[in-house]
Write a structure and sequence with these properties.
Radius of gyration: 18 Å
Low-confidence stretches: none
Shape: elongated
Number of domains: 2
Strand content: 35-45%
Largest sheet: 4 strands, antiparallel
Number of helices: 1
Mean pLDDT: 91
Order of helices and strands: EEEEEEEEEEEHEEE
CATH class of the largest domain: Mainly Beta
CATH architecture of the largest domain: Trefoil
């Protein structure tokens, strides 16, 4: 059983420039048998030592002492319980990668939100998807904006931010392997 103030208590750590750590939100308590592990403050988990496979599903486990590990093996080691999982990128995204979107915006001084996250409730995801328009082409039916891709600079083996699942936030299907959350369509998370 997990007690928390936020269903998405295990998440990608956007503050890590290596893209290889997770974060457990403060206020989360996890029952492990008769023991309870509590995280009073946000806790960063550098799991880079466990990462070695590109394009792979990793399973996250915790023991009663609060030690957290990640593994390619789905079954928890003795003394550990499953608390979540994530997927790593299979290829380098590349540097300075851009994308184009249709928009009603008309100038390069504006920002475009690629996903509908609330800035006050989910500032890390909001900032990840809130991109400044680099170029704009005005059109008859719609305008086309060029902006930096959120994954620009990520490399093979990095954690895919929207693929981090936990016991309270995960796809409704039985197998979460390789799945990512899409906030705009509310697909993938309970």
């Amino acid at each position: 059983m997990t007690v928390t103030t936020n269903n998405r208590w295990l998440r990608f750590n956007f503050d890590d420039p290596t893209h290889r750590s997770l974060k457990i939100l403060g206020g989360t308590s996890i029952a492990i048998g008769d023991d309870v592990v509590s995280f009073e403050e946000d806790t960063v988990l550098n799991i880079s030592d466990y990462l070695g496979e590109e394009g792979a599903d990793y399973y996250v486990f915790i023991n009663k002492d609060g030690r957290i590990i990640a593994s390619l093996i789905r079954e928890p080691p003795e003394g550990y319980v499953f608390i979540g999982q994530f997927h790593t990128l299979c290829r380098d995204v590349g540097e300075n990668v851009t994308g184009i979107v249709s928009t009603e915006k008309t100038t390069t001084d504006e920002y475009f939100n690629l996903q509908n996250y609330d800035e006050d409730k989910e500032p890390d995801f909001y900032n990840f998807y809130h991109r400044k328009i680099k170029a704009i082409e005005l059109g008859t039916y719609y305008n086309v904006a060029t902006l930096d891709h959120p994954l620009s600079g990520y490399i093979a083996g990095d954690i895919l931010p929207e693929s981090v699942w936990c016991l309270n936030f995960h796809p409704s299907c039985k197998n979460w392997d390789g799945m990512v959350f899409c906030n705009s369509c509310k697909k993938g998370g309970n």
